[in-house]
Amino acid sequence: MGNKKRATLIDRLERLPRVRLGQLPTPLERLDRLSNETGGAEIWVKRDDCTGLAFGGNKVRQLEYYLGQARKAEADSVLITGAVQSNFVRSCAAAAAKMGLECHIQLEERVPRDDEFYRQSGNVLLDRLLGAQIYSYANGEDEAGADRRLGEIASDLRAAGKRPYIVPLSPGHPPFGALGYVAAAAELAAQLADQGLAPQEIIVASGSGATHAGLLFGIRALDLDIVVTGICVRRDATAQRQRIESRCQEIADLLQMDNPVRNHDLLLDDSYLAPGYGKLNAASKAALLATARSEGLLLDPVYTAKPMAACLDRAAAAQAGCKIIFIHTGGTPALFGYHADLQTLF
Ligand SMILES: *Cc1c(COP(=O)(O)O)cnc(C)c1O
């Protein structure tokens, strides 16, 4: 890795407002038993489930940059929208509490289900515990509508003399959160250099795409020769590819640097997605169980079990001596929200 490239990237990142929320760097660990059982490549895990704030996860890194914007705007309240069992929303509620801001959250009906655990436990329980005010939005596939409704709540707050900041997640807004994963790429690169590791591939969940795009951008900006593969957890590879492509250009614009990501870098695999967002399948169930029982490492049913299933398949097919890095993006509180599904595993 060129030190000059690294210095430039860090310098560009430091020009943007950031608040420190996470316990960083997160560990990079080899999964010994899982690797032995799988055969083929060694599996390593970047423990972003351990970012520290209120059960951790990838949204802590993303919120460092969003709430940097909120602080710059001198906001006294933050608003965010997400799925009922959203980790982003829960992490935002925790960050707001830590910063002394009011938090207003809108929960969208993205996964059609009405069991008690899903509606009340897991992240929803934590949102309440963290003191967020909860609103609900009946349609889960209407990003524009959900944003509009959130804007109305912000207007009401403004009318009441508040200074709200909306965490803008839909396309068409600058992806400040992705900067957290550009920074994470620099953190990972330093760990790889320290430990003398040269992995072939990084596997990461691709949801909104902020994590995937940020990591990919950072890895390419640092000139590292590692394939970054996004495992689709929300939409198919064609739709997701376009998102990642635009996100990377938007990151370049935010950092005022050239976009180092080429078309052939945009790698997406949607073969683990069925039957859809927030729904387990045979491969993701098996990966969730194997990781728990071989490593004592907990994955989540919505985001990390599918990429781990992909990681196990790739590892098994790879040559001995290859190394794959799995980005554990967190989400473990959702285990309790998905109690009804997980119960069927035993
Ligand atoms: C949100 C989330 C993801 C997906 O990250 P994006 O940046 O939205 O693509 C992955 N894992 C977990 C646990 C998440 O909460």
TrEMBL record:
Which cofactor is essential here? pyridoxal 5'-phosphate
What is the enzyme's class at the highest EC level? lyase
Q: Which UniProt keywords apply?
A: Lyase, Pyridoxal phosphate
The Tryptophan synthase beta chain-like PALP domain covers 20-330
GO MF, one term, reads: D-cysteine desulfhydrase activity
A Pfam family it matches: PALP
**Enzyme Commission identifier(s):** 4.4.1.15, 4.4.1.25
Please state what the protein is called: D-cysteine desulfhydrase/L-cysteate sulfo-lyase
